[in-house]
Amino acid sequence: MKNNLIQINFLKTPVDSSTAISGLKKFWKKVFPIISNREKHFDEIWKNGTDEEIFAELVFCLFTPQSKATWCWNAVNELVKKNMIFNSKEENIIKIIKKVRFRNNKAKYLIEARKMFVINGRINLKEKLKSFKDTYKLRKWLAENIKGIGYKEASHFLRNIGIGKNLAILDRHVLKSLKIYGAIKGIPLTLNKKTYLKTEKQMQHLSKNTGIPMSHLDMLFWCKNTGGIFK
Fold first, then answer.
1. Long-range contacts at 128-136 (CB < 8 A, ≥ 24 apart)
2. DSSP 8-state code for residue 113
3. Which residue has the higher pLDDT, 21 or 77?
4. Burial status of residue 5 (CB atoms within 10 A of its CB: 0-12, 13-18, 19 or more)
5. What is the DSSP annotation of 8-68?
6. pLDDT tens, residue by residue, 171-210
7. pLDDT tens, 15-52?
8. Distance (Å, rounded) from C-alpha 76 to C-alpha 169?
9. Taking a C-beta distance cutoff of 8 angstroms, is the pair 64, 106 a contact?
């Protein structure tokens, strides 16, 4: 599997309640080439990526809740390198993903996902994803059928493989930014399905008003809050 990790570092650009939308748009223009290249990278995964590579992206999103993304991606790469994603027992996977929080549960989630998409020794993940013509219905199916995947993780996965450009990945960085730029009045205490979809619509409304595509808005917020773009 080729290493599709791209780390881009910026000087951190703090935002506060006085930051205007015009400032956000100005920053977008500044980082537009880098964000566009990252988006092309995601598109390439769907266009030319193998089932194995796409499954690795799913595993990454299974690992990320409450864990550092870079550690999760390193763990996925180590499993791929050792040929363990498809051919290893749960206890052996646990030993590899030491830095992933709740690693026992997440190793179980990997095994369950593997059982779902590997049939008679053949992985059919891409074929299954292609059977959905509506991205929102696909996300709903992923969230309802893959243990360890919620709406945020399903949105993250679909964005990372180039087919979830209008979906919101509502992590703490994005929620914080949505509040700062007036898209939401406050950060939800919990994100059940109803709240998630409502907040997503509010983010889409901000996207429409600013002219910044949803897929760019997510990465733009990450640049603002963390000083870089990861996965």
1. 129/54, 129/161, 129/163, 135/163, 135/164, 135/166, 135/167, 136/167
2. H
3. 77
4. middle
5. EE-------TT--HHHHHHHHHHHHHHHHHHHHHHHHHHHH--HHHHHHHHHHHHH-TTS-
6. 988 999 999 898 999 999 889 999 999 999 999 999 999 9
7. 443 456 888 999 999 999 999 999 999 999 999 999 99
8. 20
9. no
Q: Class of 50-160 per CATH?
A: mainly alpha
Q: Is 227 helix (H, G, I), strand (E, B) or coil?
A: coil
The pair of three-digit structure tokens given for residue 102, joined into one six-digit string: 């709740």
* Positive or negative torsion for Cα 164, 202, 192, 90: positive
3-class SS of residue 208? helix
The first and second tokens of residue 186, run together, are 């406050």
In this structure, the dihedral spanned by the alpha carbons of residues 16, 151, 41 and 205, taken in order and rounded to 10 degrees, is -50
Domain 8-46+167-229 adopts which CATH fold? Endonuclease Iii, domain 2 (1.10.1670)
Domain boundaries along the sequence of the chain: 8-46+167-229, 50-160
Positions annotated as catalytic residues are: 152, 171
